[in-house]
Amino acid sequence: MAELVLVTGGSGYVAGWCIAELLNRGYDVRTTVRGPGKEESLTQAVSTVADPAGRLTFAVADLLADDGWDAAVKGVDRVLHVASPLGITAGDPAAMIAAARDGTLRVLRAATAAGVKRVVMTSAANTASPSSYATEGTTDETLWTDPDDPTLIPYRRSKTLAERAAWDFMSGHEGPTELTTVLPGAVFGPILSTGTIGSVGIIGRMISGSMPGVPRIGLEIVDVRDIADIHLRAMTAPAAAGERFLATGEFTWMREMAHFLRDGLGPHGHKVSTRQIPDFAVRLTARFRDPSLREITPSLGRRNRHSTDKASRMLGWHPRPAKQTVLNCAQSLIAHGAV
């Protein structure tokens, strides 16, 4: 019999691709949704790249509540805890942190009580980054972001505290369940539906011309399909138990992304602006006109990178080139009518 894998937060961008990859590799999948009514749309989205017939089931469970998690993990062999509270608690930093940390603990309590073999948790590369945004160089999984750094944006603090809580919980667990964490970079790539766009909306804005220029920000671009792949590798590799794995891609300035799109999309790329917005202009706009930009200002000009040598050595994982990911993402958005 095929193993049954639970994927939390099935309607999310990364989770959808994890579900598809699991189905394509012969697993049965159960996924959580926060409420009834999303099953049909999620099944349709996944069916564009995988066959879910008879092998995809659903459970209702919310990171913010205890109800539903014991039922969700019943009979499950492995868990991919991908769900993120980002969309649940937008605008409330304290609630975001609580949801990320407490939601993770709810999943782990249920999984360990059920004797699940392994939980793979989706963390973030920015939980393994220097606290100082001015730092350059390359870091690896041995580094932990300081959650008490007052300059941290709420999302980065929430991911750091949630992963810390997970490892602290597992350090006191003596049962058979193992924990592995995956730390992705900036995730782009094809979408499964317009309802699961996730972080790729920025590429849609670049294509539509609604971005008059690009800030001097660099991203370690990684393809969503490669993130799904590393989750499955981390789920099954014996040596992955108890390990953190950075899953970042090529460091790419946003201006380079703009050139990829402008030069690679033909007529669809003619609205893409390759103009570099000066740092001072971004800071002034963030201060006086658009407070939402304040979270990106510490990243202006930052060149810190993360090493994926561990994932390559232990899991045989290698991400595809950033240019391919950006163009595939844009082509998918266009094909789905999202721009």
From TrEMBL:
GO terms for molecular function: oxidoreductase activity, acting on the CH-OH group of donors, NAD or NADP as acceptor. Keywords: Oxidoreductase. Residues 127-149 are annotated as: Disordered. SUPFAM superfamilies: NAD(P)-binding Rossmann-fold domains. Residues 5-241 form the NAD-dependent epimerase/dehydratase domain. It comes from the Bacteria. Signal peptide: none annotated. InterPro entries: Epimerase_deHydtase, NAD(P)-bd_dom_sf, NAD(P)_dehydrat-like. Residues 127-142 have a biased composition (Polar residues). Belongs to the NAD(P)-dependent epimerase/dehydratase family. Dihydroflavonol-4-reductase subfamily. This is Dihydroflavonol-4-reductase.
